[in-house]
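Q: What does the assembled structure look like for these inputs?
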Amino acid sequence: MANDTSEKYHKHSPANIDRNNVVVSLRNIKKAFGSLEVLKGIDLDIFAGENVVVLGRSGSGKSVLIKIIAGLLRPDEGTVQVLGKEIDQLDVHELQELRSKIGFSFQGSALYDGMNVRSNLEFPLVRNKRNLSSQEVQKAIEKVLDDVGLSQTINQMPAELSGGQKKRIGIARTLILQPEIMLYDEPTAGLDPLTSEEINDLINEVQQQYKTSAVIITHDLTCAKSTGDRVVMLSEGRFLREGSFEKVFDTDDPVIKKFYNYNFISDS
Amino acid sequence: MKVFFLRIYDIYQFSLRFWKEVFLPPYEYKEVFNQFYEVGIRSLSIITLTGFITGLVFTKQSRSSLAEFGATSWLPSLMAIALLRALAPLVTALIIAGKVGSNIGAELGSMRVTEQIEAMEVSSTNPFKFLVVSRVLATTFIVPLLAIYMGFVGLLGAFVNVYNNEQTSFTSFFQEAFMRITFLDLFTLVLKSAIYGYTIGMTGCFNGYYADQGTVGVGRAANTAVVVSMFVIFIEEMLIVTLINNYR
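A:
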């Protein structure tokens, strides 16, 4: 079944994964909003240099999971360790320091409307590395813009950018702090297939060039196949299957089959 | 009822956080001055216009009553007392609540629903300090300055009316006007304007910072920011006047 998806989307570049180094560790994570149980006991380890894709339908708790990793939401139960530190045990300053090593690419890009591209990129940099000279700041901005291929947009406002450009600038804004872990929330949502492919390539380039580990939240199979070293399938608050893209979809589980077929038909 | 008290508790916590963050480094000087400009300079034209008209119209309306007793010469001091004790701080606060309070509520609300505030948090920046502290400081410091300015412009409006009717000179008008103004009046003007400014900033920021439910939430945040701050300003006015009158 997994072979139905075109081979051209398969991740080609081999990742340099260090399986002795766990950068994110989730144990028995549970989260509910009122009576609605969103996560029902999630266990997950992410290794250094690895891109892990969390696949699932809308409302399956993917975004909640990624926000728990970033410390934006607290789990009701369970422990979250990021880069060896338990998030629950950190004070505000320790959490801020840890977050400077985590890049978060939001579904809607979350660029600051009132600032142009330069100021958007400058904003986290000057607040996290206060001893940088203006020349070093300028150099860092030019480098990340070059890395995402959007040097020409430096003076543009977010409203003047296309959806794909906004995603790229959003990723550039996280890269400027040289993160060790990247969290992508629906990186290809709302983009046309060609732009989606460019974003998938960018995710792989970031992994190679910045040596990052990543959690990629998506319901887009092409994105999962193109970017994931490992795929986990989330359904109704639990992981159903885990492994390579082919392994996850090589099953008769009706939930996974249905997800695959719908996605494949809509992609076609 | 429980929801109401929980809301009060949230506002208390929000306010407490402001007082904690305002003294802790790092300081967002650039954003604070940017907000000074947004709140102050960008409100000057509307404050000038309303201040001048308030002074002019209030003098015109008061003239006939005073003329019955042959007391139109009291107009300068009457206007100075009315403007500096009540009208200037109150009208300035209401205008700023409508113009700036709604703007803060909508801006922070839209930043919340488009995840811009969360983006600041995950990029290891303190959004409360950058967005809330800077705006509350700006309204707290700028509203008193605007109120003093409005008082002066209002007196100019009053002078225009008095000059047209009695040909009183500029110098004697202002000598008359300030004859009955005490240090307590000026102190009260600054104090209560600062309290109104703080109220406007806090209300706008609180409603925007915790906005939810998408674009509906943004509209609600802007609307609540204006309505609640105006309501609270009137209550504060009543309490401050009652308190200050004990010292007169």
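Residues 38 and 135 of chain A are 46 Å apart (CA to CA).
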